[in-house]
Design brief:
The protein is an all-alpha fold and 110 residues long. It has a domain of 37 residues. Helices cover 83% and strands 0% of the residues. The protein has 4 helices and no strands. The longest helix is centred in the C-terminal third of the chain and has 33 residues. The relative contact order is 0.04.
Length: 110
């Protein structure tokens, strides 16, 4: 019974992986990402033209008017917890590696 359940879970994981791969492959092959990037470039070119026109006309030019910055904050409690766990793990590993190299250095130095 347990073997059948694991087999079913494995099949679902493979199916999900295949569907994800196929979706990413399809979006890459159809040029979806290139289209999105070209839209950003076109928007930037339009902003450059507006800027140049305003400079020619002698208008007051403010950079904030021409730059579209979308700084989205994607942090939530889970990502903050993951970051703090990662930082704590990094400190512990650095201390362990530093201590082990110090011990090895003392052994080699004697």
């Amino acid at each position: 019974m347990n073997h059948k359940k694991l087999n079913k879970i494995f099949k679902y994981c493979i199916l999900i992986s295949f569907v994800t791969f196929f979706a990413l492959y399809l979006s890459q092959s159809t040029g979806y990402f290139e289209y999105r990037n070209s839209k950003k470039v076109a928007l930037t070119n339009d902003q450059i033209q507006k800027f140049e026109q305003d400079v020619k006309e002698g208008k007051n030019v403010d950079i904030e008017k021409y730059i579209d910055i979308n700084n989205k904050n994607y942090q939530n409690t889970i990502s903050k917890a993951g970051l703090s766990i990662s930082n704590a793990t990094e400190k512990v590993i650095q201390k362990l590696i530093g201590g082990s190299f110090k011990v090895l250095g003392d052994l080699v130095g004697e």
